[in-house]
Specification:
Strand order of the largest sheet: 1-2-3-7-8-9-10-11
CATH topology: TIM Barrel
Helix content: 25-40%
Keywords: Signal
CATH architecture: Alpha-Beta Barrel
Largest sheet: 8 strands, parallel
Shape: globular
Radius of gyration: 18 Å
Number of strands: 13
CATH class: Alpha Beta
Catalytic activity: Hydrolysis of terminal, non-reducing alpha-D-galactose residues in alpha-D-galactosides, including galactose oligosaccharides, galactomannans and galactolipids
Number of domains: 1
Structural class: alpha/beta
EC number: 3.2.1.22
GO molecular function, one term: alpha-galactosidase activity
InterPro entries: Aldolase_TIM (IPR013785), GH (IPR017853), GH114_TIM-barrel (IPR004352)
Order of helices and strands: HHEEHEEEEHEHEHEHHEHEEE
Distance between the termini: 28 Å
């Protein structure tokens, strides 16, 4: 998330009475060094947009969804439905075991595996594999994290291993976060073109593994990478006034999973505030009512608590 964009956003939102903040990165809890070695061989130098695997999973536009990143989720074992009973689940790849993926599949759910592709986090299983030259400035607000040099072959090897891990766990897709270093004081001179090249690399790796990939934020490069991704994940497009930028991708039949972080606790967002957020997600500029973003309201900790646009509040059990 861009520091300059965030400051501008906060000033704007103070004026209209709505403040929205970015979520903390999620702790990763396991990995595999052997997968890094295996995936390293698959790293490609080409940055051309890949051709998507037609057999890979593509989430439908307007799918219901839930995102939980602060803890592993608990899937009911007694046949009862999930809470909420969403179509698609965006869950931390490392902390949720393959058995959780399998259980969600048995319930007919799609499973997106989240990991950070653009930031270094200490204490991760593969943290020791990053080199000092891979690291840039710290992330504003997250002093333990550093921007990664997404041009680095070593960084790309590590990310290829993460995508291979997602495949081995049975994930339908990956949600690689923090690819928008160009919008921040990254200390590495990263540009939008670097992100375009990197997203195309990640997408090619996902294609090689037979899984899908989404674009997380980085809305400025969406037109260039849209052919390479099968969906998008957005934070705060209502707050930034950018939801209409996603019209082309949803009109192409690709889902956009949209999160807003309101200034009130989940369950307390009502009336005009809730209506404005959800109206933005419904893309009123598009005549077809079926062409919408998949909007949820979350607290910034991205726990199991979620509020839907119909006002329903649900809490996914976590470990």
């Amino acid at each position: 998330m861009s520091t300059s964009r965030f400051l501008a956003f906060m000033i704007c939102q103070i004026l209209i009475g709505l403040c929205i903040a970015a979520p903390a990165s999620t702790q990763l809890t396991s990995s595999s060094a052997s997968q890094t070695a295996t995936a390293s061989a698959a790293v490609k130098t080409s940055t051309a947009a890949p051709t998507a695997n037609a057999d890979a999973w593509w989430p439908k536009v307007n799918s219901t969804w839930q995102i939980v990143l602060n803890a592993p989720i608990k899937v009911p074992t007694d046949g009862s439905p999930l809470t909420p009973n969403a179509d698609v689940w965006d869950i931390d790849m490392f902390s949720n075991p393959a058995s959780t993926v399998s259980a969600l599949h048995n319930l007919g759910k799609g499973f997106i595996c989240y990991f950070s592709a653009g930031s270094y986090e200490p204490g991760r299983p593969d943290s020791s594999q990053f080199k000092p030259t891979d690291l840039g400035n710290t992330l504003d607000g997250w002093p333990d994290e550093n921007w990664l040099d997404i041009r680095s072959t070593n960084v790309r090897n590590i990310m290829a291993a993460r995508i291979a891990l997602a495949k081995s766990k049975g994930c339908d897709a990956v949600d690689p976060d923090n690819v928008d270093g160009y919008n921040n004081d990254n200390g590495l001179g990263l540009t939008q073109q670097d992100t375009i090249d990197y997203v195309n690399f990640l997408a090619s790796t996902a294609v090689a593994n037979g899984i899908s990939i989404g674009l997380k934020n980085a809305i400025e490069v969406l037109p260039q990478v849209m052919p390479a991704v099968q969906f998008a994940v957005n934070e705060q497009c209502y707050g930034y006034g950018e939801c209409d930028s996603y019209v082309p991708i949803v009109e192409s039949g690709k889902a956009v999973f949209h999160i807003e972080y309101p200034n009130k606790p989940i369950g307390k967002v009502k009336g005009k505030n809730l209506k404005n957020i959800c109206n933005a997600g419904s893309l009123p500029s598009v005549p077809d009512p079926a062409i919408t973003l998949s909007t949820v309201l979350k607290n910034t900790d991205l726990s199991g608590l979620v509020q839907l646009c119909n006002g329903t509040v649900a809490k996914t059990p976590t470990q």
